[in-house]
What we know:
It is a single chain. By secondary structure, this protein is mostly helical. The chain is 58% helix and 9% strand. It has helices at 6-9, 12-23, 38-53, 67-75, 85-108, 118-123, 128-136; strands at residues 30-35, 112-117. The protein has a two-stranded parallel ribbon with strand order 1-2.
Amino acid sequence: xxxxxxxxxxxxxxxxxxxxxxxxxxxxxxxxxxxxxxxxxxxxxxxxxxxxxxxxxxxxxxxxxxxxxxxxxxxxxxxxxxxxxxxxxxxxxxxxxxxxxxxxxxxxxxxxxxxxxxxxxxxxxxxxxxxxxxxxx
Length: 137
């Protein structure tokens, strides 16, 4: 799993790593670029940031049946302020710009990749996104 954090995105090792992936032919390495709804991602980021400020960080994910973890997650479900207006527009533009940079880097590296939607995979009414993903693999 690669999370393209902007703090290391332009590091020579990150760039060369993707170039090496793009150059591989035997075996070929394929990349799945999983995108999540940017507003959903922002909510998640706000919840985690607030939990860190409260000095008891919540886990990014809870294991199935881990009720204690789920209870901690729910404690931060409604206790944050979502940005609006100019702040939200600026953040959305930055989010789209980062996405474009990632796609450009994947294309430049010649990595074989497919971009899929988290929402279509896990909240969709059909299996179309799954079929597209599996056909790519």
